[in-house]
């Protein structure tokens, strides 16, 4: 969602609207391959797949080269809490469902990390398939034209059809295909699809111009994210896997609350994180939500 890092380790053009280009585009010395922990005291063999909401760009300490993984992202925290036997984090900023099967920069196809010994898989994907980064950038640019209105909603519903609803529907079979292959490669694993946390205020009241989203578009983007999460939950149910709700537990910690209470940063992060992405507190909250689902046998 709203990827801060495009392929190649640079910001997507959508976020240029916030003047954020280069703010987090720092060189990372760590190799771009999987972050892998050695044997622990538990028996869990855990593989984490996903996009930047999983990898946590900008959150210290950064690993994974252009994939911008954090050492305290929700997979790393869960691996620590579960005392995993083995742990591979192959999440990568900018990932779409297609990147489960193809090389993304120096990151191998994410599904290659799975095997028949894998016992736990978490998957956070879908936001980039609907182009949420470009959507946020477009909405930010349009907000200046009508800050009290809903210029972004008007654009995406022109002609009486919601383009974003269509994009979410088109992403559903892609997520289903990923889950099918996860089952094939890791037939004995518990699988958890991870939803996206609260970004826009759940009450629909924005904070323009601090977060440059027009008043009427705050609720529209909130509902779009909820629709995306609903699709992910539905695909989890159809595939017989688990769904971790990270939206509910993060309500009240959105982009508009004071920095001390914020778990997802806005256009100009005040805590280390990429724009419109979880900070360390947000990743911890996501980890708690995922852990509660993953531990169930």
From TrEMBL:
<feature type="active site" description="Nucleophile">
    <location>
        <position position="52"/>
    </location>
</feature>
<feature type="domain" description="SGNH hydrolase-type esterase">
    <location>
        <begin position="48"/>
        <end position="284"/>
    </location>
</feature>
<feature type="signal peptide">
    <location>
        <begin position="1"/>
        <end position="34"/>
    </location>
</feature>
<protein>
    <submittedName>
        <fullName>Lysophospholipase L1-like esterase</fullName>
    </submittedName>
</protein>
<dbReference type="InterPro" id="IPR013830">
    <property type="entry name" value="SGNH_hydro"/>
</dbReference>
<dbReference type="InterPro" id="IPR037460">
    <property type="entry name" value="SEST-like"/>
</dbReference>
<dbReference type="InterPro" id="IPR036514">
    <property type="entry name" value="SGNH_hydro_sf"/>
</dbReference>
<keyword id="KW-1015">Disulfide bond</keyword>
<feature type="disulfide bond">
    <location>
        <begin position="139"/>
        <end position="152"/>
    </location>
</feature>
<dbReference type="GO" id="GO:0004806">
    <property type="term" value="F:triacylglycerol lipase activity"/>
</dbReference>
<feature type="active site">
    <location>
        <position position="277"/>
    </location>
</feature>
<dbReference type="Pfam" id="PF13472">
    <property type="entry name" value="Lipase_GDSL_2"/>
</dbReference>
<dbReference type="GO" id="GO:0019433">
    <property type="term" value="P:triglyceride catabolic process"/>
</dbReference>
<feature type="disulfide bond">
    <location>
        <begin position="207"/>
        <end position="256"/>
    </location>
</feature>
<keyword id="KW-0732">Signal</keyword>
<feature type="disulfide bond">
    <location>
        <begin position="67"/>
        <end position="92"/>
    </location>
</feature>
